[in-house]
């Protein structure tokens, strides 16, 4: 017995973490944007029916930019992303209700740019020299769905197709001198983490594109987040080595900037995903993942130097003046918008996704584990033991175990704070958050190990992870449950249908 704690059966411990707290209190954070030294981000608010609001941070605090009646969200690819852009004090955003692009001065009223055509837009870049936006347009018609790279005039809202020869396009980015455009494309049946191509074309005097040059990609190579440097070279992330590593095109050839067994890229499920940004001197502030944990650092003169930060989960990296802004989280701290001054070493939390305070003694801290998969390989997971400041389990009793499967299936579990996990551990459950084969963050071969084996290899790994905890840690073999959402929901159903390991399960959406 632990001194001062009540002995109670695992799974019955009282907890202040309620389902209502999870559903109503937390906001989603994303879409970090900067305009000079000004910092912005997007908030998804359950209390406002899921409305997505652009928020600006100033010396006096944070305040909403998006007026009531508008929600910043695009439906391109249905998953959206890349719904806002800020340039020289003007906000451009896609409104969820009508999918039109709007222009709004930071302190002004939105005005529609595009017409009521039913078209959808995303992933905008501001072509200042030609007073237009370049973005992705998705058109739904009787013949099907067509994606194209288009320009949108900021004078009259007219739309012109710049490139319509691909099934999918993304990441249009204008070079610093305004003379070239880069973008990504991919073709069915590939997904962007299977094979993408990186293109560059000259922008003519009339605004049309010259003959595109394929810089990298295609075949068996995935390209992620191309960004121009001030000197006109083009940085991007490629997995040609088996890992998403940093590369650069100098106008003639491609070379790896840094090769390591870590991931600087992500599966591009939505627009606007980013893991790095370019500083004015051409150095890179970048995030990378190794065995499920993220770090942030600077890449300069061929050397990658990590910052000392408490965050294990990092996304949306942006240079903001002399600072770095990102979404960061750790096992004991919920996701937050963070502003970091690398020179001074000061880290400032600008906005937290969860406003409440929880006693750290109630929080279960994850431990990264590996286990053998049935094919003799290695599986990865985060183990959360039961944790409650007031309770402990009876001597000799084993806790029930909840095994979680993420979506995607190319998604990934991280050790970042999760109320949905703490809800269970605080009640006396153990939780195993599995990065089954197919997960991102462990190299391309691990990601592709699920090809042709979905519903088999992932199920094997969920079962193997559960059996590992039963044999090594002491989970109750008669009280094993499984749950998953999206692709993880299918994994859950397959595990319940074809295996006898789990006594219960929940498939979400």
Give me the secondary-structure category: mainly beta
Major sheet characteristics: 6 strands, mixed
Share of residues in strands: 35-45%
Q: Note the overall shape.
A: globular
What strand line-up does the widest sheet have?
A: 30-31-34-33-35-36
Tally the helices: what do you get?
Answer: 5
Residue share in helix:
under 10%
Number of strands: 36
| Chain-averaged pLDDT | 95
What value does the Rg take, in angstroms? Answer: 24 Å
Any low-confidence stretches, pLDDT <50, length ≥5?
A: none
Terminal Cα span: 41 Å
Main attributes?
single chain, 509 residues, mainly beta, 6-stranded mixed beta sheet, 4-stranded antiparallel beta sheet, 5 helices, 36 strands
What does this structure look like?
The radius of gyration is 24 Å and the shape is globular. The two termini are 41 Å apart. A hairpin with a 5-residue loop joins strand 3 (38-45) and strand 4 (51-58). The strands form 9 sheets. The chain has a 6-stranded mixed sheet with strand order 30-31-34-33-35-36, sandwiched between helices. A 4-stranded antiparallel sheet has the order 2-3-4-5, with no helix packed on it. The protein has a 4-stranded antiparallel sheet with strand order 6-7-8-9, with no helix packed on it. It is mainly beta and 509 residues long. 9% of the residues lie in helices and 42% in strands.
List the helices and strands and how they pair.
Elements: E1 6-7, H1 19-24, E2 28-35, E3 38-45, E4 51-58, E5 61-64, E6 84-87, E7 90-94, E8 101-105, E9 111-112, E10 120-127, E11 132-141, E12 144-153, E13 159-163, E14 168-174, E15 180-186, E16 197-202, E17 213-217, E18 223-228, E19 234-238, E20 245-249, E21 254-258, E22 276-278, E23 284-290, E24 293-300, E25 303-306, E26 313-320, E27 323-330, E28 333-341, E29 346-352, E30 367-372, E31 378-384, E32 391-392, E33 401-405, H2 419-425, E34 430-435, H3 444-448, H4 457-472, E35 480-485, H5 487-498, E36 504-508
Parallel strand pairs: 1-32, 33-34, 33-35, 35-36
Antiparallel strand pairs: 2-3, 3-4, 4-5, 6-7, 7-8, 8-9, 10-11, 11-12, 12-13, 14-15, 15-16, 16-17, 18-19, 19-20, 20-21, 22-23, 23-24, 24-25, 26-27, 27-28, 28-29, 30-31, 31-34
